[in-house]
Amino acid sequence: MADATPLTATTLTDVLRRRAALTPAGQYFDLYGETVTYGRVWEQSARYAAGLAAAGVRPGDKVCLIYPTCAEFFYTFFGALRLGAVPVPLYPTLGVEPTAAIFRDAEAVAVATIGWFRTGVDESVALAPNVRAVLEPPDLEAAAAPAADWTAREDDLAFLQYTSGSTGQPRGVMLTHANVVETIKFMAEAAHIGADDRVVSWLPLYHDMGLIGLCFTPLLVATPLWLLPPDLRAPRQWLELITRVRATFTVSPDFGYRNCVRNVRDTSDLDISSLRSALSGAEPVRPSTIGAFERHFGVKNLISPCYGLAEATLAVSIWPRGVPVRLDSTGRFVCVGAPCPGVSVRVQPALEAPDAATVLPAWEEGELCVKSPGVMRGYYNNPEATARVLSPDGWLRTGDLGFLDREGFLYVTGRIKDVMILGGENVVPSDVEEIVDAVPGVRYSAAVGVDSERSGTQRLYVVAEVRDESAPGERLHELTVEIVRQVHQRRGHRPARVLLARSGTIPKTSSGKIQRARLGQMIQENALADRVLAAER
């Protein structure tokens, strides 16, 4: 079993330092067949800290990280921490303007990236004058005097985790060292992860589940990790790696398991019986997915639903390992477990003030509120948004709907706002609509996420009322192509379908608000057929 010493660490830097001192030759992670040890990450992160310092980065400065899944991400992340800087991991293909907006919001002084992302990074930096340096691994590995390690305190800011939030404006979730360390401690306990486990992950490093859940938690308890690039076009690779290394633990959003069932037909050379637990989170967990996956791959009681959010660092609740999943009385909602150790959950009327005292009884649906050592300090440079979700005594409004049963187990039933979940990422409809409405020829638009059995997640549908309803088919086709291009370029998601429609097609409330749930239902029932002028995928 793992030496418990790192469990006493109070900062993320300390976790790595102590692990590297105890087992320097131990495997931190394996990527593309190359093993990277704890000692290697400690050694290289010192060089990267020196490289950052040589580039003018100082304690407290923000450094954005735009990397694929690679060892250099870890060297840069921990190098920034050791310098006292604040790493900001970002989605690599977010788009030029959205990325620049985060550069500006984070007040980043430097961006660390790698070759094939450099062109896009440079375009974003041109729109963010606060960024003084763009650095690649050769720049960071250059010989420089080692920088003395910054002595971080547990309440110091560790890193910023950007989330789109309910308004669509990116918000930097401020996570302290204590937030992260306490979360990975109770996650390891709740998920029963230890040194005798073997973890496989395909989740991206810029996502809280991939980074905190599957990179930092194993580091704490000396669990060897195998990494894959996040490519769901080839889910067999994930299962093959589990089979080859006899993995015992993995995690995926619901759509990942569904993709395996749909795309991996021949299972004769696969054996995932070594898995003790496979968590499912980051998007709604479907009972049908759990049943289909376990039947298809010949396992039982493997998938454990869980719930969490970036504003709580990550985990809130985890269903216990090896126990049959529990459904509510309707059979629609999966129990996502009891709150993790040290985490409290209460249910209050939706949209009530965060400091309100009303608590709803068992089985009554309302907004889920969380209090835990993982609850964020707040949103970076956004006290107004922070005040809307955080009470003075530390309760966090999640924006999610759900209820507790009489035993204190949690069920998540939906979202208060109309946030779409596309491939595991939260996307606000108004972000897409603003882009579409700016396309010449569009009068008014609405974006909605429609559940897709085929893709295993939501698919983005755009309904656009056109200005010229008598336009020829060729012109309508060009308009559709431009809508798809603009949305994909500026928001990073390609619409599954664009429906060009007559004026008045999009349903609205009496106050003019789009009725998204109704629109989604109309799309699924093909109720817009007589209003649509052109529909293209």
Secondary-structure blueprint:
Layout: H1 12-22, E1 27-31, E2 34-37, H2 38-54, E3 62-66, H3 71-83, E4 86-89, H4 96-106, E5 108-113, H5 118-125, E6 133-135, H6 137-140, E7 157-163, E8 171-176, H7 177-191, E9 199-201, H8 208-221, E10 225-227, H9 235-245, E11 249-252, H10 254-263, E12 277-280, H11 287-296, E13 303-308, E14 315-318, E15 338-339, E16 344-348, E17 366-371, E18 378-379, H12 383-389, E19 396-404, E20 410-415, E21 420-422, E22 425-427, H13 429-437, E23 442-451, E24 458-466, H14 473-491, E25 497-501, H15 516-524, E26 532-536
Parallel strand pairs: 1-10, 3-4, 3-5, 5-6, 9-10, 9-11, 11-12, 12-13, 24-25
Antiparallel strand pairs: 1-2, 7-8, 8-18, 13-14, 14-15, 16-17, 17-19, 19-20, 21-22, 23-24, 25-26
Question: What would you say this structure looks like, in words?
Answer:
The chain has 537 residues and is of the alpha/beta class. Among the domains are: 1-152, Rossmann fold (3-Layer(aba) Sandwich); 420-536, GMP Synthetase, Chain A, domain 3 (2-Layer Sandwich). Helix content is 31%, strand content 24%. It has 15 helices and 26 strands. It has a 9-stranded mixed β-sheet, with helices on both faces. Strands 4-3-5-6 form a 4-stranded parallel β-sheet, sandwiched between helices. β13 and β14 form a beta hairpin. α1 crosses α2 (38-54) and α2 (38-54) packs across α3 (71-83). The longest helix has 19 residues, at 473-491. The protein is globular, with a radius of gyration of 23 Å. The model has no long low-confidence stretch (mean pLDDT 91).
